[in-house]
Design goal:
Length: 183
């Protein structure tokens, strides 16, 4: 009988300790108005046009359909440089690897899914970003859905602003990345 009481007390104490730890872990509050980490970087995309092989950082994997005039259905795969300033020749602080596709017939709109890969003295790790880029808007928010290394399990928003467009083959985006969950 004494052993049953002893095991019951140990089991009850173990349950209380686990419950307390779980409650503490889930009670962490996030300040939704102030990010825990913020980066402003520039995304440079140079689409292969048949003559710029040496400089191209992206290529059409699936060509657009003949529906509308907005590249509907075109899929582009990229490995683009990310810089701290808006100069293409600045040293990259990361690479953006992923794809985007144009998904509207009546206006330009793209859907992005990519990983920012950092490997420098300042940051090591990845940030995963995905969502719709409503190109007609001045700014657009895409979701930060995870990360690794310095950005382990990151959550937040990447705000796009088109900084430059040169023809059909080069564009630059300013990305204001605000992380609200940092570990």
């Amino acid at each position: 009988m004494a052993q049953i009481v002893k095991y019951t007390i140990v089991l009850l104490l173990s349950f209380l300790i686990l419950h307390s730890l779980t409650t503490l872990a889930h009670s962490k509050k996030y300040n939704e108005k102030k990010p825990c980490k913020r980066l402003v970087v520039y995304y440079h995309d140079i689409l292969y046009n048949g003559t710029n092989l040496a400089n191209a950082t992206s290529a059409t994997a699936v060509n657009h359909t003949k529906l509308g005039n907005f590249n509907h259905g075109m899929l582009v795969v990229f490995n683009d440089p990310i810089t701290k300033d808006n100069h293409l020749l600045s040293p990259p602080v990361a690479r953006a690897q992923g794809f985007y596709f144009y998904d509207m017939k009546t206006e330009y709109n793209a859907w992005f899914s990519y990983t920012l890969i950092f490997n420098s003295t300042e940051h090591k790790g990845t940030i995963n970003i995905m969502g719709a880029d409503m190109m007609g808007e001045e700014t657009r928010d895409l979701s930060v859905v995870g990360g690794t290394g310095d950005f382990f399990m990151a959550r937040g928003i990447a705000t796009f602003r088109t900084d430059s467009v040169q023809g059909d083959f080069y564009f630059r985006l300013e990305m204001d990345i605000k992380l609200y969950e940092c570990y």
